[in-house]
User: Which sequence fits this backbone?
């Protein structure tokens, strides 16, 4: 670099730095997150939410007088890769904390790394119950995502109100799919004993050809189906299902867990979306009954990402970082042992309202939005309307 | 016992998947049969075909013929790319050790997939089915989308055209001769270099076409290249590497085993395919319709 341009850059950096003197190094947060393939549909915006939080808090002087710095790595939605980049972040980059992972394969794998290295790890997205199950729980793992129990039971509460008894399920054959399906089946049998599970399909994670599974399911003639085919995979699944008349055969009595109702998913499909089905989402920019704090958050996010319709996934990265920053403040230290203690029972005012991390299982009472998808003249893609926040607090155990 | 309409629907979905696999595996098998190179990058041409089709649709804008123009344009673009790759890179591989060939084609996979990520990003792309083929019809109680029917007819048509070129034309005779003895063919005055390039162009065309035509049914994502190349390898191993009808048969078997596998072993359908491949490798290492290697 030429001396002159270096001086210009140095000057610009000085000018941009707030007046608070950063005597210390920044607090480094590592974020392993899928940034390629279909899971990137959700992973990429989640990192943007975390970045926005960091930018905002750094503008206000950081935490304990230190700036926060985010180091992202592509985990490729693969447990081995997530473990590899997490180790690299800890050993080579010396990160102080980990916030990240998306799939239920990555989450528990990185949790083990956090335990080995005694580093606080906050999971903003993986849902498998196994992450915070009593035998896997350790002092350093926390979750601000919903769990498979919470999501499966929420779906059961909704489907129990439908006039159907023959119910089918379709889910990927791995931790998340199995756990959410089990939670749904157990809860609906309790709520409505007349329900029969007539068919269960288990494509492998990342399946591209769903035709055989769709045919097999239709042959069992279910009246309603609960799916947890998530992310970009739902796009492929429903394209093929719609062509085979699947949604018509079950009269759109279909609930797509795994955020099939999120604006990302409906936007990705546009006119191909099977309007009329139910879906869920972590957030929705069009959430009309939300608090003013949420409206403010949405406006800031739209500006930050320069998107007309901001993502529903950013909020998970945002809330994950919020909890971490609050805990560091409360602990008055970046020591992982102290921060881990501070996280227990911690309540944070998030854009979706106050959330609390429970002491007994390190789990936040994060609910989700649910609703039936409809076409809306205001937007070029379907939305959930009315959209309802299902608070899981009463059925978390 | 499941009812017959279901068995029918299931076998059709297996056949549809088989036709795509045939398009991909045929190119792979052709390149191996003639050029004696196991081209790992063939799946990448398939992926680039899908992305190119998406790109052409973006450029052309919505219209009744957009998809078809885009699909053909994509296949031609990939064919041209194949020609360039063969002329500049592959020609140095002929006759080299297989390890070199594998390493080289694998490097090509990595490079081209990163190029695709730079151009199209990592977010998945999606194409709608072409207007006119969006509906479906009912046959023997099974719902068949028009687009799937089109694929079911196109597969055998391409197989026959391909077979005709190989068996009944001058170029086809040269290709078959080149597969058997390159030197003698060259000594007889045939321009073998040019012939190799055309074989590569043809194989790339099929790969690109497969990618373009599959995009309305699946998502266009990074990683679709390595996924399909594994499936295509299974197909040619079952059918016989270098054998044309073997590839067709291998694809059909693969599709049917996968389709009906989920009836008998709902959670292990993928296992049944690999078990079949293992069995073929043990009993007939050269594949069902292949010939033992000289």
Assistant:
């Amino acid at each position: 670099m030429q001396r002159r341009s270096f001086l210009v850059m140095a000057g610009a950096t000085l000018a941009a730095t707030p007046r608070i003197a950063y005597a210390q190094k920044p607090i480094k947060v590592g974020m392993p997150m899928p940034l390629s393939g279909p899971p990137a549909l959700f992973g990429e915006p989640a990192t943007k939410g975390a970045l926005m939080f960091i930018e905002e808090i750094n503008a206000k002087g950081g935490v304990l007088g230190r700036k926060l710095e985010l180091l992202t790595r592509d985990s490729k939605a693969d447990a081995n890769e997530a473990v590899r980049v997490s180790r690299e972040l800890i050993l080579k980059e010396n990160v102080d904390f980990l916030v990240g992972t998306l799939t239920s394969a990555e989450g528990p794998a990185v949790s083990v790394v956090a335990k080995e290295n005694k580093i606080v790890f906050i999971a903003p997205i993986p849902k498998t119950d196994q992450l915070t199950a009593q035998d896997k729980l350790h002092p350093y793992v926390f979750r601000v995502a919903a769990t498979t129990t919470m999501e499966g039971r929420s779906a059961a509460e909704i489907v129990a109100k439908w006039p159907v008894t023959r119910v089918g399920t379709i889910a990927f054959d791995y931790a998340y799919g199995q756990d959410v399906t089990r939670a749904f089946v157990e809860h609906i049998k309790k709520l409505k004993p007349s329900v029969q599970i007539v068919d269960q399909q288990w494509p492998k994670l990342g399946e591209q050809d769903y035709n055989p599974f769709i045919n097999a399911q239709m042959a069992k003639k279910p009246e309603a189906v609960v799916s947890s085919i998530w992310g970009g995979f739902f796009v492929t699944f429903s394209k093929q299902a719609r062509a085979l008349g699947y949604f018509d055969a079950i009269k759109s009595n279909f609930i797509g867990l795994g955020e099939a109702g999120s604006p990302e998913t409906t936007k990705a499909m546009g006119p191909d979306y099977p309007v009329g089905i139910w879906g869920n989402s972590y957030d929705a920019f069009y959430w009309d009954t939300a608090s003013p704090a949420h409206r403010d958050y949405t406006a800031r996010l739209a500006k930050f990402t320069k998107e007309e319709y901001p993502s529903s996934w950013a909020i998970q990265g945002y809330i994950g970082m919020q909890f971490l920053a609050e805990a560091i403040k409360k602990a008055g230290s970046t020591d992982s042992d102290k921060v881990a203690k501070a996280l227990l029972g911690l309540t944070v005012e998030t854009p979706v309202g106050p959330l609390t991390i429970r002491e007994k299982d390190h789990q936040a009472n994060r609910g989700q939005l649910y609703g039936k998808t409809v076409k809306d003249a205001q937007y070029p893609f379907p939305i959930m309307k009315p959209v309802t926040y299902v608070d899981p607090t009463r059925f978390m155990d | 016992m499941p009812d017959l309409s279901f068995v029918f629907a299931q076998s059709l979905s297996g056949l549809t998947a088989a036709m795509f696999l045939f398009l991909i595996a045929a190119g792979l098998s052709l390149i191996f049969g003639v050029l004696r190179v196991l081209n790992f990058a063939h799946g990448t041409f398939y992926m680039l075909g899908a992305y190119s089709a998406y790109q052409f649709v973006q450029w052309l804008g919505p219209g009744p013929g957009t998809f078809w123009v885009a699909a053909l344009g994509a296949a031609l673009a990939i064919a041209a790319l194949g020609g360039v790759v063969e002329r500049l890179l592959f020609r140095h591989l002929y006759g080299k050790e297989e390890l070199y060939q594998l390493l080289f084609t694998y490097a090509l996979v990595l490079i081209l997939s990163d190029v695709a990520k730079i151009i199209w990003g990592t977010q998945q792309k999606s194409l709608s089915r072409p207007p006119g083929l969006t509906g479906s019809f009912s046959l023997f109680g099974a719902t068949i989308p028009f687009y799937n029917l089109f694929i079911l007819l196109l597969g055998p048509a391409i197989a026959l055209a391909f077979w005709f070129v190989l068996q009944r034309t001058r170029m086809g005779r040269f290709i078959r001769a080149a597969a058997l003895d390159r030197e003698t063919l060259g000594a007889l005055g045939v321009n073998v270099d040019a012939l190799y390039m055309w074989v590569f162009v043809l194989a790339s065309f099929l790969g690109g076409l497969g990618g373009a035509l599959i995009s309305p049914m699946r998502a266009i994502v990074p990683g679709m290249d390595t996924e399909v190349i594994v499936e295509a390898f299974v197909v040619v191993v079952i059918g016989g590497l270098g054998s044309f009808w073997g590839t067709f048969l291998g694809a059909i078997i693969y599709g049917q085993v996968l389709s009906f596998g989920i009836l008998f072993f709902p959670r292990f359908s993928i296992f049944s395919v690999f078990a079949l491949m293992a069995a073929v490798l043990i009993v007939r290492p050269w594949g069902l319709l292949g010939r033992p290697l000289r």
Summary: The first strand of chain B starts at residue 136 and ends at 139. The first helix of chain B runs from residue 4 to 35.
